[in-house]
Specification:
By secondary structure, the chain is α/β, with parallel strands linked by helices. The protein is 24% helix and 23% strand. α2 crosses α4.
């Protein structure tokens, strides 16, 4: 069978052109010395060195990629994953951000963008806060217009994100710990999500929650058709009760997060209405969202339109953990 096979043309060695090589022979220049983050790092020196509050204003354009990542690296070098106290570094941007805006953003760093952003916003978010909102003079409805691109919050592990507009496809894919509020999503929202909390204050695309094994999502089902858009293979779609849970369980939601490990979301088996209101209030605080304001002003009428997307195995694990916690408390009381 091998007699008719001639590999000589595939294995022929081509001699390189003079002045070039066929193998690695030098260091590639990624242009990092000219990156916007170099300026941000210098301007944030007081925060990095001694934890002093820093407030900056900058313009961003679409060739500025992974803005905030190098700055966050400097935070992590000195302070680790714990990062800086909340909002120590607050940078206000105007413009159109390139890919991966706020990637790997560390706790204590807030990036507040008036404009819009490309794909991968908040990729690997690691405790920071990212806000994207339209300019005040723009009259278009944020719930009908894209403000951040596809694959937002890919692989995020901690932090907060507030988007006064619609996110593209695969919003919060593989999110494992961040909390986010957005006014609509494209297809495949919360795909493969394993942790965190997402609130969608508007329409979603199809195949929502495909492969979602952890975390919780709330969707404002204004059209009443979310049941046809969700992938129910691993999740249940539940109503959000307005009744207050008297049992605190593992903790009630709080308006402010505690640290990089606790964003004040409380017991995920309980307190849905409280948690959702906290998220909508935060969204309004950070973005000035008109939709958030309308929901809050008409809370009794709006709340029944929300549904909770809860992974079945995640709920089972939480109930098991609760049983173990109660058993341990009972033993300790004896």
């Amino acid at each position: 069978k091998l007699e008719g096979i001639d590999l000589s043309k595939l294995l022929h060695r081509v001699e390189p052109v003079e002045g070039t090589t066929l193998n690695w022979s030098g260091t590639q220049d990624h242009g990092l010395e000219a990156a916007l983050d170099q300026d941000l790092i210098k301007a944030s020196a007081a925060a990095l060195e001694s934890g002093q509050a820093v407030r900056l204003e900058r313009t961003v354009i679409n060739v500025n990629r992974t803005v905030g990542a190098m700055l966050s690296g400097e935070v992590a070098k000195k302070y680790g994953h714990k990062g800086l106290p909340d909002n120590t570094v607050h940078i206000s941007f105007k413009g159109v951000a390139g890919q991966s805006f706020a990637a790997f953003l560390a706790h204590g760093v807030t990036l507040d963008l008036v404009g819009d952003a490309n794909d991968y916003v908040g990729k690997g978010l690691s405790g920071g806060r990212v806000i994207v909102r339209p300019p005040a003079h723009v009259e278009r409805d944020p719930a009908e217009n894209i403000i951040v691109g596809n694959t937002v919050l890919y692989g995020a592990i901690a932090g907060e994100a507030y988007f006064n507009g619609v996110g593209g496809e695969r919003f919060a894919v593989r999110n494992s710990g961040a909390i986010a509020v957005v006014e609509g999503t494209g297809d495949h929202g919360c795909e493969y999500m394993t942790g965190g909390v997402v609130a969608v204050l508007g329409r979603t695309g199809r195949n929502f929650a495909a492969g979602m094994s952890g975390g919780v999502a709330y969707v404002y089902d204004v059209d009443g058709n979310f049941a046809q858009l969700v992938n129910g293979a691993m999740v249940d779609v539940l109503p959000v009760s307005a009744e207050r849970d008297e049992d605190d369980g593992a903790g009630r939601p709080q308006q402010r997060g505690v640290d990089v490990y606790d964003y004040g979301m409380g017991d995920m088996l309980r307190h849905d209405a409280e948690r959702l209101r906290v998220l909508v209030e935060r969204h309004h605080l950070y973005t000035g969202s008109k939709r958030a304001r309308e929901i809050l002003d008409n809370w009794a009428e709006a709340l029944p339109k929300f549904v909770k997307v809860m992974p079945r195995d995640y709920a089972r694990a939480l109930r098991q953990m609760e049983a173990e916690r109660l058993e341990a408390a009972s033993v300790a009381a004896e």
